[in-house]
Amino acid sequence: MKQALQIFSRLAIVLTLLTATQGCRQKSQTDKTTDSTEIHTQEEDTARYFLGIRTDTLQMQEGKIPRGGSLSLLLGQLGVGPSTIELCAKKARPIFNVRHLQAGKPYYSLSSRDSTNSLKYFIYQENVTDFVVFDFSDSLQIYRKQKEISVETRLAEGEIDHSLWMSMKERGYNINLALDLSDIYAWQIDFFGIQAGDSYKVIYDEHFVDDTVSVGIGKIHGAVFNHVGHDYYAIPFVQDGFRDFFDERGINLRKAFLKAPLRYSRISSRYSHSRMHPVLRIRRPHHGVDYAAPTGTPVYSIGAGVVVKKAYQAGGGGNYVSVKHSSTYTSTYMHLSGFAKGLAIGQKVSQGELLGYVGSSGLSTGPHLDFRVYKNGSPIDPLRMESPPSTPLKPEYKDSFELVKLEIIRQLQTEPLIASADTTKTENVF
User: Fold this and answer.
1) Domain carrying residue 199
2) For the CA atoms of the chain, what is the radius of gyration?
């Protein structure tokens, strides 16, 4: 009996030792796992990325394309051999023309941190959002990358002292918003006759990269412009798949013709039957409107039509284009510095399509656009021309429009709004 007790006692001690040893092993394994997780987490916290490429493990340098610089010159300086450079040019053709590197544009090189300092990536930045990547990390790959664009719905409002453009600039708004508003209200408001005290309020989408860099204006969700004490509303509404702006009565703001063929200039001479010619110094009719604007300012067709003339008039209009809009109306654009690429007689153009650029060709004292409109072959004053509205609001959409209108007007009357936009919004829902 005594011997049996001794055996059981020894077995208990062995089991206790085994259990303690197993526990130590488990604790050791747990500690190792915890340490590994902490190290992995620390690595993730310190990791840095650019266009999805991890950069903290590489040597990254930024530069500007020099004047006269080429891809072969830059890659050669970074240690890439002639045969690989030739392959780059060949492989890039479907994606990017390597001859189109522009002086002053940024580029980035990412190289290994070891003694070889071998180039892993060469990245050319075309603009704030678009990049061309030459990937040498494995087999040569060339592809495009784009920074993620975020969308915010914002509200801009202000009172005008001098001009809409200046008001928005002073308040830090994207000035492209002023251009968009001038297009929307082209026939309701004379932006050359803005009064001090006029005001605006607009709800719109703005696009950003890196959360802070604005890259453009998206959709306008609604606006009200107070001009000489009268509120002009712009309500966006979609009918038959097309998005137009309407006033609160359901009248389409877009007309068959644009109010002016270019953006943001000044009228230097108006329609007249007797004007002192600035070059000839004699009085003669001036059956057009002169818009003073910098050379190269884009000139657009005021309406859909067909190009019927594209020529040069040495003793008068210089480079000019004429567009026939219907059996009734024709418009002419004179003193151009050049024509839109590919523009030809017989070509159909749409409203707002580029025709050419402001210049001083022909008989001219400085850069401007001489814009003329003919009705049934006779000149008329473009600034007094009546233009019928575009597609009117159809009766079957009236109830839906009323709901949209009430919601947008309510939004315009609320406190200032700055919020992330839902990019999956459906049309006719704010």
Assistant:
1) 150-254+392-420
2) 34
Scan for tokens 């008068």, then name that residue. 316
pLDDT at 262: 87
189 shares a domain with 87? no
- Amino acid letter, 361: S
With bands split at pLDDT 50, 70 and 90, how would you rate the model's confidence at 421? very low
pLDDT tens for each residue of 222-245: 999 999 889 999 999 998 888 889
Considering only CA atoms, which of 195, 219, 192, 218 is closest in space to residue 207? Answer: 218
Lookup: tokens for 318 = 């210089």
Residues 380 and 397 in one domain: no
Yes or no: say if 240 and 221 are a contact pair by the CB < 8 Å rule: no
For CA atoms 305, 308, 311, 313, the dihedral sign is negative
Q: Return d(Cα 416, Cα 409) in angstroms, integer.
A: 13
4, pLDDT greater than 70: no
- The residues pairing with 267 across neighbouring beta strands, listed in sequence order, are 291
Asked if the model's pLDDT at residue 159 lies above 70, the reply is yes
Under the banding of pLDDT at 50, 70 and 90, the label for residue 16 is low
How many structural domains are present in the chain?
A: 3
Chain mean position to CA 323? 28
Q: Domain containing 271 — which CATH number?
A: 2.70.70.10
E strands, 293-345, in order: 298-300, 305-313, 318-324, 329-339
pLDDT digits (tens, 9 = 90+) for 79-105: 999 999 999 999 998 999 888 899 999
- SS3 call for 14: helix
Closest to 302 measured CA to CA, from 404, 208, 390, 170:
390
Both 135 and 215 in one domain: the answer is no
Distances (CA, A) of 384 to 63, 194, 271: 54, 17, 10
Give the tens place of pLDDT for each residue, 325-361.
888 899 999 999 999 999 999 999 988 899 999 998 8
In a shared domain, residues 122 and 158: no
Give dist(CA 113, CA 151) in Å, integer: 37
State how far the Cα of 322 lies from the Cα of 333, in Å rounded to an integer: 6
List CB contacts of 233: < 8 A, sequence separation 6 or more: 222, 223, 224, 247, 248, 405, 409
